[in-house]
Amino acid sequence: MNLNITSIPGDGIGPEIVNETKKVLNKVAALYGHEIVFTDILMGGASIDVHGVPLTAEAVQAARQADAVLMGSIGGDTKTSPWYQLEPKLRPEAGLLQLRKELNLFANLRPAVLYDELKDACPLKTEISNLGFDMIIIRELTGGLYFGERKTVLENGIRKAADTLVYDENEIRRIAVKAFEIAMKRKKEVISVDKANVLDSSRLWRTVTEEVARDYPEVTLSHMLVDNCAMQLVKAPARFDVVLTENMFGDILSDEASMIAGSIGMLPSASLNDTKFGLYEPSHGSAPDIAGFDLANPLATILSAAMMLTYSFDLDKEAAAIEAAVKQVLSDGYRTGDIFSPGDSSLTKVGCREMGDLVAARVV
Ligand code: IPM
Ligand code: MG
Prior knowledge:
12 helices
């Protein structure tokens, strides 16, 4: 099969983790007889430095023409980087938001799994981590607070800023359908997370989700308020399977879920539209403090590539080969700094490049 992949190394640790992921994908291609062509484009700070904007029309076009997009991370240190002196719509993050919107990537899938091998890296009490967890957060990605009208004004000498949380029923319906479809392949349970005790947008979210649920009689739908969800994630993560939520709540809850999975460096993600096309990126950011030191954990990006093989190319066997290789590396005791437990003599600390090599070597 020919895989035409646009890659966005981006900023910070992005180029390092994308490099390791390409290594792993090339190994899969060689073993399973596929042909991969990578086309790199600039986005975020890397694009600002060259073009003065975080995303050019040409870059969007290149992404659109690919079968799938592999992304590292974008953004820099908000306190020190000159990118953050620019007006908000020219900053690195604006490039990512624009790309999500232009490509209609409304469904963001973020699986959070506690691997047996990483139970020690889980910050929860052992009686909780021993139960393990395996959930997928389905985050709406092109609506809500991120894309509603915003303004900053001076009113009677008082500075005032507003962001608007807007959803229409169609936006809610299509992401709910995605969640129920995924639930049908899992435990047939959806927990929809909202703030319906306060927000109108959440009350509509609840109503539309219940309407969608009628088309999936085998799936149990329950609702949970977002503040309670934040608490339950650390109290009883095992109770979650499919978690459906709006853009901002999903952003926050997925960071929390990644932390209890051992490290934010482990959580992959897929951003999908209603075709096979998708953008695959780790859930974590660009970690500018460790960029360039060969310290980053490439596993979230490597696991994102496995999601790419599943969702964009239907190459389930190849995706499973990557996931198995990651598990094998972990059970062989190799850890990047973020998942390393000092004092455990069975573990070997490795850098980003070596981690990529170790995974690639275990792809069979
Ligand atoms: C994420 C990130 C982005 C988001 C940032 C970089 C704009 O935090 O993908 O979770 O908030 O969506
Ligand atoms: Mg985030």
